[in-house]
User: Fold these one by one.
Assistant:
Number 1:
Amino acid sequence: METNETLNEELSLQDINKLIAVRIEKLKTMQEANNDPFSITKCDVTDYSKDVVDSFKEDEEKVVKIAGRIMSKRIMGKASFCHIQDSEGKLQLYVTRDNLGEEKYSEFKKYDIGDIVWAEGTVFRTHMGEISVRPTKMIMISKSLRPLPEKWHGLKDVDLRYRQRYVDLIINPEVKKTFETRSRIISEIRRILDEKGYLEVETPILNTISGGATARPFITHHNVLDIQMYLRIATELNLKRLIVGGYDKVYEMGRIFRNEGMDIRHNPEFTSIELYAAYQDYNDMMDITEEIFSKCANKVLGTTKITYGDMDIDLTPGWKKVTMIDSIKEVTGIDFNKINTDEEATALAKEKGIEIPDKTKETRGDVISLFFEEYVEKTLIQPTFVYDYPVEISPLAKRKKEDPRLTERFEVFIGGREYGNAFSELNDPIDQLERFKAQVEARNAGDEEAGMMDEDFIQALEYGMPPTGGLGIGIDRLIMLLTNSASIRDVLLFPTMRPTK
């Protein structure tokens, strides 16, 4: 009996090249016989594997036309079995000389694992109980010149899986399911916002100013204009220009680029959504955040009670809300409401061994943020809105009337990670100008993540922007959460990788 072709991890590059050479010779033989699989431009496919199995009836002789990649093959004289894989799953074919004819059956026996074939035949149940197709016609429609990894070993090298995602998708069905889930989540988010009257828009990826977030940008050069340009680090400022222009509700979902570190949560290009609604504030953004997360969970998992890693998480609306200062007090006992000067805050940081980065001013607000990151963030397992952030770390958020040192801003944390960021948007052009100046000062002092002066945005605000609520959500992190994926690379089809030599 001929067994499945295998490609074990021990195979050397020389061995692989030999296998490729054999397959190329098979291709040449087919081409010389005027049977070139690459000359085929179209196939009549009427059925897919899952539908064939699900619709099978014992008393019905149904003829189907199917196509897929050969994933396994057993040759047994006058009759053989193979499994083909299409976009919906796998299906067994029972291939016989009597049904195909001598010539076509002989051709089939020379097919390799990985070849893509088309077949027409009747559906039946084998003695072993497996729904199968008995082809009366069968042709190869694409030749696989490079052998696939053997299915029991698969791609163990994670780095190789990310680099060769096309092979990963062929070999690992669960990976394919992850990206199908990703598409469903994105569609659900759009449905939610569209039903609420939000208008989806597109704004530039290339900009003359890097703004809308605190991040180091990618820099490129426009040859015709002979100017330096930046890949966007956020969509915020352009979307708020649209609110000024008279749109009440807008959103954009798309790629963002940040020239920063790479780890299991960060990729240089990633997908985010930002949405803005006139006449709303950050409390309204809390409501829509809960709605998006809970409805997406129900859509793809059928429940709001999920598992991520070893954590059981409940996304049912009604999430905990706590101010940043109170969250620090809950965990450490330290009350920053009683610490009112920069000098007191800096002294406390030194006492607790909290290192203040050189690029950070020694202000009370910065120290509050550092304490939160050090002590609190990792403790927020169940969905939690942490709100009222210091103005020093929130250059685009509206100040709180009750305490101008704070802003109407929140971030949402789940499983110890941040998933979203929202403001009652700053619409005071005079205040915004002063905050931009502070960002420019930080940038001139060496902070490459600090924002730039955007005079056009100030001018836009001077025309008047209504009170507005804004929200940004990291789409990739949301998908990681709902697919129980440990790394952002597991939910990006083609993550950024260091080039191979």
Number 2:
Amino acid sequence: MNEQELMNVARRLVADDKGLLAMDESTSTCNKRFAKVGIPQDVDMRRAYRELLITTPFLGECISGTILYDETIRQQKKVGTPFVKVIMDGGMIPGIKVDTGAKDMAAFPGEKITEGLDGLRDRLKEYFEMGARFAKWRAVITIGFGIPSFGCIEANAQALARYAALCQEAGLVPVVEPEVLMTGDHSMERCRELTKDVLHAVFSHLCTQRVMLEGMILKANMVLPGRACAKQEAVSEVADATVKCLLQVVPPAVPGVAFLSGGQTCELASARLNAMNARSRSPLPWALAFSFARAIQQPALDIWKGNIHNVVAAQNALYHRAQCNKAARRGEYTAAMEETSTLAHA
């Protein structure tokens, strides 16, 4: 493990007001999203869509790294250039999702455990050799009647820590993602309490597994009420609750927190990130960045629809969303930025 290189990569991932583009959807998830907009669900269309994403002009001005799926990291442009080379040539860092998904947890009805530790050491070595320099593992925590349980939180926290240690051993920066889901009718306060508990457990296990905090990134959920909750707090209240929660449990050694969008609309995800950065009265110990998937991709997918003639317009929409989130990192995002679907390159 090269500690200095891990620290350098982790810092680059959250430097210069940039963030991550999560394009690590599994084949089944990608196919479902294609089906909703009438795109054929096959490997050629998935390859074409991912080429559209990574070849967006000037994307590297706003995006520091891209999280890929196993299928994607092995793909090439139509002309034969490996995607990993395209990403690096665009000034971005290739990353890879390495968990194998959340599965039903035995003896814990309604709860999930993320799998993928078996054989992970060898897979990480292969991905490093392919050019990846960071990885991602997602755990999901559901809020409901009597859940999450202590056992579910502990099992997922331990798996995240073991994954992170293996990543650093292989020379990859671990992006640690314990997601408290937005589904349900829970209050924002309930989400805050559980997010704090989950993050406390995660960092406890990270320290137990001797993970170097300076060489990792936390991918966190914002503190939000459930989608079905009658009370939906204002953007400023979400921002303040999220920052307060993070200050209580995230060690200052961590270089950055990259928020997931978790089903938020593009505009709300940007506005809430913006409020966190704009409302902080003193410098925070870590950067507040983004690691969005649908909240960056969806407008481009809706425009593209699998039609080659729509590629430029789709890329403009993608770049626009990336610019909005870069502005949000500076606390300079405004609703006026949504009045146009494209922004001219400065």
Number 3:
Amino acid sequence: MLSVILGFATSLVYGTADFFGAIASRRLKPTLVTGISAWAGLLFLSSMLVSGLFQATFSPAAILWGIIGGVFSAFGLSMFYRALAIGPISILSPLSALVAGLVPAIAGAFLGERFGWLSYVAIALVLVAVFLVGFVPGQDVRLPSPQGVLFGIGAGVGIGVVLICLHNAPASSGIATVILVRLINGLVLGGYVIFQLVTRRVAASTFKGLGPKPWLTMLATGVFDSGANLLFVLAVRQGSLTVVSVLTALYPLGTILLARFVLKEKLALSQSIGIALALGATALLAF
């Protein structure tokens, strides 16, 4: 039951990170926001080590899974932004979340994870809820192009592989793999930000006059994203990869709830149904 609670909490924290990232992206390009927040997340994880709240042992296995996870993290994010640029967002965003939940579930089946029929029903309901929560009917509902679908699937595969890597890291390594995932991700995406500045694709004046709010939202994005990584590791070490990953794929839930209560955005009927289905399926999994 603890793994279910932590898995559901992971999705909410990931969704909170996406919410702050979306707010920051109103002032800066999403790629810039992601690159800067990646380093903010790394600083947060470093503070966790210095404070003694977590420990990290960089064993060969931890390093291997951290490097693989970092590469796929950068790949998944780049695919995600390309998918959103092509659109429609209302279809490709929940598609990527659905794939992100399915990839670790398939890996869990190969690892020998088995459940009772009631659990399989609950897992299926969560996957349906993932799509309903992210789908916004009436907003650019044209059918996606094959290229957009491929990028959306690629984004989901990238995110899903990161979850598998975090699961496969030795428990004795602490948060070493999480740190390496953030480090590699920061090097790739942060390096891309520097490349854009050097080649003048982004002017340095872009950052002038931003004020504290955009910087604080980018800091919050990195902190919540890294915090979600920590929660996922804690959850998956208490339970199964399949259950925790499928629950984590509900991360659009945290975003739309914050948008509803903070920005006063209205929920579509399909999203309300998805939220109710997600809560019911989560309770069923815990049961």
Number 4:
Amino acid sequence: MEVLAQLALMVDKRLLETGTLSTRDLRWKGLSWFGEDENDDYIAPEVLRLNEAEMEHFRTDANRIYDIFIEAAQHVAQHQLWDEAGIPANAIQLVQHSLKHELGNHLIGRFDYAGGLGSAPLKLLEFNGDTFSLLPESTQIQRMLFDKLGRKERKRSGQFNLVSQGLIKGFQQLLDRYPNRPASLLLSSLGHEEDELNLDIIEEAAKHSGFTTVVKAPLEDVIFSPDEGVFIEQSNGQYLQFDFWFKMAPWEFIAYEEPELMETLTNIVLNDLCIIINPAYSMLFQSKGLLPFLQKVAPGHSSLLKASKEPAAPPSSAYAAKPLFGRTGDNVQLFQGGRYPIAENDGDFSNFPKVYQELASFDKDEDGDIYQASVFWAGDGARGFCLRRQDSLIIDDDAEFVGHILQENDWTN
């Protein structure tokens, strides 16, 4: 989500031209939003090449880091360090219950990394473990970019693009874990078009996994009863109950902005009326407050950056100050040995406390764009990969999406 202690060597030799995706192609896939208006230059006309050993490094690290996040979350629960980890008081009961009774229900999240592209060391920035973005880009748009390569390039190339398969397996695991529950799933968001496009991927996987009823409805149309569960009202005036609810609404938004709903959802889960996905313990994954605990449970792990919640004792002279529950680079500040930031973004999260994380090295191209890699964890492990790039020191909503391909590494010489 942010960039740089020291920008690493150029990645230009890794880039392979594909050309731009046409508006017609995007519209045919239902993805025109990613190529229209302010997004018209969002999708880069190149893909970036990696070799299998590099991708294996991303995969294995993401799988190990996922285990470390669980260990850190359990450490917080065991020692009741909720405030230090950033969990508000009205969410503690549900998060604690979720860790104890719902471990394994987590469906999907996205790790963001610096480095790993041949010159800068691989370093974890954060885990979007509750809600996320980049799902349509990673599953569909990357495939479209791959298909634009010449036949010879396609024949000698591959892609790490198995997120949909991971989602299907994750949903199947949930159904197996709760065999006595009806296979009814409700999908909801706050109504943003990008969230709805991400939900489309979730919906398709759920239908392939064995759910017999899959319905999308805006959060504002969902009925939550602490005594009966989760419902929507149908056009015929009847009410349809759901035993599973996937929400594209952050747990921290519910806890801070909708406290009555937080209380109701706590009762629904504690009364075993509905399974909520992602489960409440994913709020810990999303919180930057968990970052300082990662090294406590896995000291010396190579991809972990030092982090602290103490403003008087940042982890190094070069560090990022991040809001506890910030997103898309909002309210991030970068410091490099001085009192004043070398880069900063405005945003909507200035009311949250900050977490201070040492800066990492990012790979860059000759135009000065820096590259941030992401790995999707879905179902049972790392399942997909993508990149973003930007010509500033903080990756935010102005970043370009960059696809990838896997090839033998003769191009690196």
